[in-house]
Amino acid sequence: MFIPKAFEQNNTDCLINLIREYPFATLITVSEVEGIEANQIPLLFTQDEDKKYLQGHIAKANSLWKSVKNGSEVLVIFNGPNGYISPNYYPTKHETGKAVPTWNYVTVHVRGRLSFIHDTDWNKEMIDRLTVEHEASQKTPWTLNDAPEGYIEKMLQAIIGVKVEITSIVGKWKLSQNQPEKNRNGVIKGLLGQDQSNASVMASWVCVAKQ
Length: 211
Hints:
By secondary structure, this protein is α+β, with helices and mostly antiparallel strands. The protein has one domain: Electron Transport, Fmn-binding Protein, Chain A (Pnp Oxidase, Chain A). It has 7 helices and 8 strands, in the order βαββββαβαβααβαα. Strands 1, 2, 3, 4, 5, 6, 7 and 8 form an 8-stranded antiparallel sheet that branches. Strand 4 and strand 5 (51-59) form a beta hairpin. The model has no long low-confidence stretch (mean pLDDT 94).
């Protein structure tokens, strides 16, 4: 990924927080059978002593676990908020006319070694942790115990666990940091003036980035 100096994000906590806040990832693999493939999978970040992992699952009907070898290098992409930035947001545009549209976004790229897990106990524990994390905001969180006896065990037969041992994490926070302060303020004002929740979210990220 091309990352200009102004947009580098090297803070590990920020990278991990984005993975946790936006866990719906794109898993990119390469195999001799299928070539380049991309699968969308919610993934859970975990850490075991000095090693970091991503964990999730795919449907057993997905042939990925047959075409990609265990230990293969993969790329996993997590996308945070993004949005169009109009030149009209820049005060300097009104002064000189020298401005062009752009797109602001936040993304994390993870490289690692992929393994497919066929162990039912491992998969059940992974599903439980994934569920606990994403049910946390519910008024009455759903748990595996809410399902009828034997149902979860039956469903587990239809999935294959996925584990990525992380070898590198890089982040790109493109949030108008290359603009003068008055233009960054203009971007925030312009985004907040839109009647879109995503624009408000992007404005908050730009605001944090300029501090």
